[in-house]
Each structure stands twice: as C-alpha cells, then as structure tokens.
Amino acid sequence: MVNDRGQIYTMEGVAAGLIMLLTAYIVISTTSIYTPGDTHIPDMQLEQLGSDVLAMMDTPDTNGGESRLIELVRGGTGTGDALRDEFLAGCKMRSGGPDDDLRAQVYLSYRTSGGSVKMIPLSSTDPEFTGRENTVRVTRWVQLQTRPTTGMPGDMALRPQAVLVEVLLWRA
Amino acid sequence: MACMNEEGQWIVLMGLLVAVGLFFLALIINQSALVGQTTAEGVLEFPKNDIRDLRSAIFDYTKGFGNVDNISSRSVQDDITMISLERKNAVVSFTVGEKMDVSGRWLHPVQIHYNNGVTEYDETAYH
Fold this sequence. Notes:
Chain A is built from four helices and four strands; from the N terminus they run ααααββββ. A four-stranded antiparallel beta sheet of chain A has the order 2-1-4-3. In chain A, about 35% of the residues lie in helices and about 20% in strands. The N and C termini of chain A lie far apart (about 75 Å). In chain B, strand 4 and strand 5 (about 120-125) form a beta hairpin. In chain B, helix 2 (about 50-65) runs antiparallel to helix 3 (about 70-90). The mean pLDDT of chain B is about 85.
C-alpha cells in the first residue's frame, strides 16, 4: 500500500508553486520597455503646455487691446525670434530651476493672393534641428487687419485675413 | 496525517493571505502603466485645443464682420476653411446669421461645423 502521509505537504507545495508562478508572471509583465513610440504622456503634457502659453500670449492686457501674439506676428520675420523667445520663456516659467531643454520653432501659414496656402518660418532655424526630433505642434489663429508692411512675404494678399501661427515644440 | 504537528497553522494561513494581498497590489501596478498611456493617447487624439482656438477665431471674425457678406469677409472665411484643411486636416465651415433677440440681447447666431475624421463637432453659439 502506498503511504498517504504527508499529503497536506504536497498540496501546500502545489499551492505555493502556483502562487510563485503567478507572482513571477505579474511582476514580469509589469515591467514595460520604454520605446520611442511610447512617448504619449510627455507629448500630451508638452502639447498642453504649448497651447496654454499660446493662449496666454493671445490674451490682451486690457479689454479691446491688442495681444502680444498679434503684435509679434504683425512684425513678421523681424519679430519672429522675439515671438519664439517669449513663447519659450512662458513655457519655462515654473517653480524651481528653469527648464532649459525646451526648443521651439515658429511658422506662419497664410493664403497667397492667388488663393493657395503657404507656410513660412517666422523664427530663425534652430541650428540643432535635425527634423528627427519628437516634436509636438501647437497652433493659434491670428486675424490681421491687412498685410503688415514689413517682414511678410510679398505674395500675401493685401486684405484683412486670418493666418495660422504654428509652433513646433520639442525637448532637446 | 495523523502524526502531523498542527501547531502554527495560523502562520501558514497568514503567509497565504499576504501572498494573495501582494498579488492584488502587483495587478494594480500592472494596470497603471496601461492606464496612463491610453489616457494620454485619448487626450492627444481629441482636438480640444483646436476646437477652442477655432471657436475663438470665429468669434473674432464675428466681432469684426458680423454677418456682412462682402469680398473681405468671404476671404477671411476662406482663409479659416482652407488653412484648416491644409494644415490641420480638418473640414471646417461656419455661418453667421442675422442678429436676433436672445433673452433681451441682440446676438448673431454662429453655426460652427468641425470634422477632422475622428472628432466631429457642431455648435450653434450666439455671439
């Protein structure tokens, strides 16, 4: 006859083995490898930050006044760098030390007098921009009374118009 | 079984309970990574800022032009529609109606339509 002593030890062993296996499975599947395609959370935060700063710049200081953003866009390429610097200063404003890794580039989309849509860079090109950065794009509509006299391309129509300010924002 | 010492069974029981507890904690950590990612994806996908900005641009337009229909107003409308399509991949159309009495205030009814293929947004606002 087979001796049936110690069966409870066997059952305990089986239960412990199952628990250990399941724990190992869960622990291993908890670890996720951070791949470049997995940057949604920082992207979302950066996009929200950029949109908020553009909205802030588009708010006039007084009721009926002109916002800083419109003022800078009216200056065209002449004030494009100032626009970028003020935008970045707004993004870097936080408690603690400044956030020096942020970079931005400002573009302007407009319609030519012929009716097609064109895009020009407003700020000077970032020397380290390779085009492979993980950027987010934030935009803001600006309405101009007429074509500004300086800093704008010659094929922009001479009439009241709506233009789109586009800012590429990335972490270097 | 008969000769087994049954003292200290509660230690074994506590061990089991702790193991089960750890299990659930591990499950929660396991899910949290997924939750952050899917939430962020959802937020990125939904064009909240685009719609807000478009609304304020259209209200600016209404403030400037009202419901007049002339060459300038039509070209600003075309600017918004065409730049939206080209640069934001969104089909946008809006109309501004005659001023009407809204609870004692004279406001333009503004119809806004927005569709970027994922999110569709229609609104009649009074401005």
